[in-house]
Structure formats: C-alpha cells, structure tokens
Amino acid sequence: MSRFSEAAAFVRRDFLAEKSYRLSFALGALATFANLAVFYFIGKLFGGRMAPHLAPYGADYFAYVFTALAFFGYIGTGAGSYAEKLRQEQAQGTLEAVLSTPVRLPAFLAGLTAWNFIFATFELAVYALAGALVFRPQLAAANWPAAALVFVLSAACFASLGVISSCFVVLFKRGNPMAWVLNNFEGLLGGVYFPVTVLPGWLLWVSKLLPVTYAVRAFQMAVHGGAGIAAIKYDLLALAAFDLLLVPGSVWLFSLSVARARRNGALGGY
Fold it and tell me: At what angle do helices 105-130 and 233-264 cross, to 10 degrees?
C-alpha cells in the first residue's frame, strides 16, 4: 500500500465519523461568526489606539486580526490536532493496533490529521465568506504568491510542533507541556490578537523565540502591505530555519517515543 493510500484510509475514516455530527459543524460556523463580531466591535471601540502599531501593515485593527485569526486558525490545526487525534486513538483502543500494522510513521502522521486540514480548509472558506459579506476587510493590496509561501513554511513548522506535542501523549498520556504552551502563549505572544510591538520589552524578546511571530508578521505584511518575498526575506529565512530543525526532528522524536512506549508495554494504555 502506498503512503497516499495509507493516508487516504485515515481521511475516509475521519470523514465518515465527522459526517454523523452535522449539528457540531453548524454550531462551529455560528461560533466563527460570533468570534468575528467580537473583534469587529473591539476594533470599533479601541482600534484607533492601535494605529501607530498597525501603520507598518497598512491595516486597521479588524482587518489585522481578521487575517491573523484566519491564518493562525489554519496553521494551528497542525499544532493542536496531532495530540488530540492521538489521544482519541488511545481512548478508543486503536493506537496500538494501527501501529502494529506495516503502516509507516510518516504516512501515519500524515493521515492522522489529514482530515483535520481538509475540514480546516472548509472552515477557512466559511470564515473568509463571512468576513467578505458582512465585515468586508480590505485586501486589495495583497501579494498572494508571497502569502502562499509564508503559508506553506508556517504550516510545516506548526505541524512539526504538533508532532512533538504528540510525543508527550504517547509517553505520558496526560500532561502535555507543549500543548499548554501552544494553546496559551503562541497567540498571545506571537502577534495574532495585536502586533507584538504592543508588548513590553522583555516579552518582546520572548516573542522572538516563537515561530508564530515571524509567520504572522510576514503574512500580514504580504496580505495588507503587499510585501514581496524580498521585503519579508528575514521572516521567511527564520521560518525555513525552524522547518529544517523541526520537520525531521519531530518525526525522529515521534519514532523514539513510539519505540519506548512499545518497550514499556504502554502503547495500548490510556
């Protein structure tokens, strides 16, 4: 069986499971609209105070946070869904059975969250449609080829962080410090809800250690400022460096975690 066929089998399984929960999807769409409305009115009330920090992007507060949330929500699928899906496999008692088959780890990791990315793409389309029809952010200056490159580099980076996060699930079941950091600090310190220049100096230095900071800044510059690849090259180089370190490193760490869980007889536990 090819790696594509292995991943497709996971996608088909997750699609059939998701299809039986239509109400969940409808509520998710309503939550997306409500989330947009919250930031829209925050922008109406306080957006003017952000103007000096938003000047480099050429966007108002709502346009900034609209694109940041859409972008971060999509790439964050990789960071959050690996551990979540792996924990689900453990609880259902299927993890050990799947990993006992000839499925290769890269194919397993690709298939594990492939459906999440497909569904996230659909949610992103709903998000964009709601924004375009109701809130109408101005994106006429966008440099989409540069934004696409940022998107690809960022997605690979965050998927790798998600794989590393899943290592804690394999080894410890509960208690995942990586997921805790990703869920609580990436958006706050990475410029998703406001530009990082708002942060005090010591937190600004912390934000420079996070890949999301470079991803969001480069994406905002490309989408709102029309920046080309040359203008955001340093952010792109930072993301590429994270990818070179994290992509192979995450697969290696996951394979070590699975091997250790097998030796300890803990792979089937939950």
Answer: 130
